[in-house]
Design brief:
Pfam families: Aldedh. The chain is 38% helix and 21% strand. By secondary structure, it is an alpha/beta fold. It has a 7-stranded mixed beta sheet with strand order 14-15-16-13-12-17-18, with helices on both faces. It has a 6-stranded mixed beta sheet with strand order 9-8-7-10-11-19, sandwiched between helices. Strands 5-6-20 form a 3-stranded antiparallel beta sheet, with no helix packed on it. It binds nicotinamide-adenine-dinucleotide.
C-alpha cells in the first residue's frame, strides 16, 4: 500500500513550444509512478524528435530579440519571475513531492532557491560589461565583448529537477540565450509548473521552450544542429554517451555529474554538529543528492563515539509519507533503484562493512513504496565498491584515519571531485586541508549551506567540468569576442 498520493493538481501542459502549450507530444506514452505508493499519477504523451525540432525553431526565432532586449528589461522580467515563483510556492511544493517523493517540508526552500537564482542572475543581466585591453605594438583599440551562445539545450535529472533546471536557466537567460529544456519523464511536474510561471511572468514566447521526455528526446537535443550548447546534469554514464554524440558536431557541453563526496571529521571537531551534518549525507534529498557527503573519514580517536552518535541520530529520522510535515525522509525514486541500492549494501557487507543501522528494505506501512532506511556502514574498506561508487540512496560509509595526511590521501583517492566537507575547530587545519581537496566545492563545518546562487558549483575529475552559480556560472553561457581596431 505505501503512502497514497493526496489530491494534487498536476500541471495542464507537458510541452511548451513557442506560444503553444501542449498537453500531448508526438512521442511515446509514459506512466509516471509516485514512488511512495507505486501508483501511477498520470500517463504523459512524451515529446519526439519532431517536437524537439519545433522547440529549437521557436528558440532560434526568439533569440535575436531576446539578445537585443536592453539588459534592464531582461533584468526586470527575471525579477518578476522570482516574485511569481515565491507567490506560487504553495502550488509548487506538492508537485515537488508528487514527482519524486521528496518531502513536503523541503518544498518552500526549493521555491525560494529557484526565486533567488532568478534574482541573482537577473541582477547580472544589466551588467554584462566587456573590457578594454591596452595593446602591444602600434596604436590600436582592443576590446573584449561577451556574447550569448544562442540556444542552450538543458537536460536535467529526476532527483532535483527544479533545482537543476533553474541553476542553468537563470545564468543562460541573463546572458541573452534562449532555452530548450527537457523535463525528465520520471519527475516532470515541477518543471512543467516552472514553465507555466515563466509564461505568467510575461516572458516572450520562444525564450523558454519545454519538451518532456526520456533518453531519446535528450539524444535528439544533443544531435540537433540548432542547439548551440548543451548543459547536462546527470550521471557519468549518460555524459559519456552525450560527449560521443556531441563530438560529431563539435558541440560544447557543460557537465554536472555525480559524486562520492568525502566528509573529514577531525578529533577537534564539534562532534555533535559533525555527526548531524555527517548523517545528512544519507538523509538529504532522500539520500539522492549529487553533492551529499557519503564517504565519512573519521579520526580514530573519536571513531567509535562518532559512529554511535550517527546511530543514535539516525533512529530519530522519521521515514515515511512525503506529505506529512514531520517526515524527514521519503522513498527512493523507484523499485529498481531500491534493488540497486540494496545490492550495493549487500556486497559492501560481504566485503567486511559493519551495518550500524538500516541495511534492509522497510516493511509494514512502508512495504508498498520504495522505502529504504537510513543506512550507516562502518569499518568500510577504502578500496571496496561501496566506498568508491556513488550509491545514490540513503547510505553513508564510515572509515577511520590516523593522521591528517592519511585523511587527505583517502579523501582524494576517488574518481569523483564534486564536494568535500571538513569538520574541525582548528582554523589553520581548515585552510590547510581545504586547500588540498580535489573537489569543486569544499565546505568547512557545513553540509550544504554553501549551495547558493552566488557561488560557483561544479566538479573536478569525473564529477564534471564547467561551473554553475556566481560569475563563473554566467560565463558558461557567454562566448568571447575580441575586437582589435587599427588606429594608425
Ligand atoms: P541520468 O544520466 O540517467 O539522466 C539524466 C538526464 O539525461 C535525464 O533527463 C535523462 O532522460 C537524460 N538522458 C538519458 N540518456 C540520455 C542520452 N543518451 N542523451 C541525452 N539525454 C539523456 O541521471 P539520473 O539517474 O536522472 O540522475 C542521477 C545522476 O545525476 C547522479 O549521478 C547524480 O549525482 C547526478 N546529479 C548531478 C548533479 C550536479 O549538479 N552535479 C545534480 C543532480 C544530479
Amino acid at each position: 500500500m505505501g503512502f497514497r498520493l493526496p489530491d494534487v493538481s498536476l500541471p495542464e501542459f507537458a510541452h511548451l513550444i513557442g506560444d503553444s502549450a501542449e498537453a500531448a507530444g508526438t512521442g511515446e506514452t509514459f506512466a509516471h509512478v509516485y514512488p511512495a505508493s507505486g501508483e501511477v499519477t498520470r500517463e504523459i504523451r512524451l515529446a519526439s524528435a519532431d517536437d524537439v525540432d519545433r522547440a529549437v525553431g521557436a528558440a532560434r526565432a526568439a533569440q535575436p530579440a531576446w539578445r537585443a532586449m536592453p539588459g534592464d528589461k531582461r533584468r526586470d522580467l527575471m525579477l518578476r519571475l522570482a516574485s511569481v515563483i515565491e507567490a506560487r510556492a504553495a502550488e509548487m511544493s506538492p508537485l515537488l513531492s508528487a514527482e519524486n517523493g521528496s518531502i513536503l517540508l523541503a518544498g518552500p526552500h526549493m521555491s525560494a532557491d529557484a526565486a533567488q537564482k532568478f534574482r541573482y542572475f537577473g541582477g547580472w543581466a544589466d551588467k554584462l560589461e566587456g573590457r578594454t585591453v591596452p595593446t602591444w605594438g602600434g596604436p590600436a583599440h582592443d576590446y573584449v565583448a561577451y556574447e550569448p551562445y544562442g540556444t542552450i539545450g538543458v537536460i536535467v535529472p529526476w532527483n532535483g529537477p527544479l533545482f537543476a533546471a533553474t541553476m542553468v536557466m537563470a545564468p543562460a537567460l541573463a546572458a541573452g540565450n534562449c532555452i530548450v529544456l527537457k523535463a525528465p519523464e520520471t519527475a516532470p511536474w515541477s518543471i512543467m509548473k516552472l514553465v507555466e510561471l515563466i509564461r505568467l511572468a510575461g516572458f516572450p514566447p520562444g525564450v523558454v521552450n519545454l519538451v518532456t521526455g526520456g533518453a531519446d528526446v535528450g539524444a535528439a537535443m544533443v544531435e540537433h544542429p540548432g542547439i548551440d550548447k548543451i548543459e547536462f546534469i546527470g550521471s557519468g554514464a549518460t555524459a559519456k554517451t552525450i560527449l560521443a554524440s556531441a563530438a560529431r558536431s563539435l558541440k560544447p557541453v557543460g557537465l554536472e555529474l555525480g559524486g562520492k563526496s568525502a566528509v573529514l571529521v577531525f578529533a577537534d571537531a564539534n562532534l555533535q554538529a559533525a555527526a548531524k551534518r555527517g548523517l545528512s549525507g544519507a538523509v538529504s534529498a532522500n539520500g539522492q543528492g549529487c553533492v551529499n557527503g557519503t564517504r565519512l573519514l573519521v579520526e580514530r580517536a573519536i571513531y567509535e563515539p562518532y559512529v554511535e552518535m550517527l546511530k543514535a541520530m539516525a533512529a530519530h529520522v522519521k521515514v515515511g509519507d512525503p506529505f506529512t510535515m514531520d517526515t524527514i525522509m521519503g522513498p527512493v525514486i523507484s523499485e529498481a533503484a531500491l534493488d540497486r541500492i540494496h545490492g550495493m549494501v549487500t556486497r559492501g557487507t560481504a566485503e567486511g562493512a559493519r551495518v550500524v543501522c538500516g541495511g534492509a528494505r522497510m516493511g509494514g506501512d512502508h512495504a508498498g513504496g520504495a522505502f529504504y532506511p537510513v543506512t550507516v556502514l562502518a569499518d568500510v574498506a577504502h578500496g571496496s565498491e561501496i566506498a568508491r561508487t556513488e550509491v545514490f540512496g540513503p547510505v553513508i560509509v564510515v572509515t577511520p584515519f590516523d593522521s591528517e595526511e592519511e585523511a587527505i590521501t583517502l579523501a582524494n583517492d576517488t574518481d569523483y571531485g564534486l564536494g568535500a566537507y571538513v569538520h574541525t575547530t582548528d582554523l589553520a587545519r581548515a585552510h590547510r586541508v581545504a586547500g588540498q581537496m580535489m573537489a569543486g566545492q569544499v565546505q568547512v563545518n557545513g553540509s550544504g549551506e554553501a549551495m547558493t546562487p552566488c557561488v560557483p558549483f561544479g566538479g573536478m575529475k569525473h564529477s564534471g567540468h564547467g561551473r554553475l552559480g556566481g560569475i563563473e556560472g554566467l560565463r558558461e553561457f557567454q562566448q568571447v569576442r575580441n575586437v582589435w581596431i587599427n588606429l594608425q
